[in-house]
Here is the input.
Amino acid sequence: MYVLIAGAGLVGINLAQKLVELGHTVAVIDIDPNACRYAREQVGAMAFEGSAVSTEVLLEAGIRKADSVAAVLRSDALNLAMVTLAKHYGVSHIISRMRHRDFEAPLRLAGAHHIISTIDLAVSTMVNAIEYPEVESMMHFEQGQIEVLKLAIPERCNVVGRSVAEIAQDARFPSGSLIIGYQPHPHTDLVIPNGSTVLESGSTILIVTKPGTLHQVIDFIEGCP
Here is the structure.
């Protein structure tokens, strides 16, 4: 996949590095020559010096062949312009960072398929870390309508020694929640469980649920049998 990243700041560079590691062809655009040099020499991405909202620079960077564009420039106004240009050149998948909520509707109208609010994401992550310290990690989907949490199984709790099917059929397990991942031990791979998978203490599970049932899920998993 050819991915074009507008902006080689902290977010842009880290995004480029991850994508390169995954085997994608990545190009970044930035007005800072030092950032471009770093992207080439340290990240292994192509880099084009200049304004990401310049049509000349975009064409040189190959926007017409880009499978995906990520707008992570220094201001929402510049990201809005970048999204508009990416839409104009027919890019099929456009992602934009957003700092202020006032830009959400304009970004969507301009053609952004995914809008990432960096402030909302950081605040949400910190709130979850405070409210749910037992949760190792949490991901949000569909504008926060769905949560996926990673949770360690204590030694003595409701789910130890029980199968996934038994847990799903327990009336106390919140409806609409589902165990979708299981890691028996820290050094083993995460697997997709089936109904007969039995949970062990010291293992880790991935659960998909709705935000309103997070407390119920955690209380059920960690509760005494």
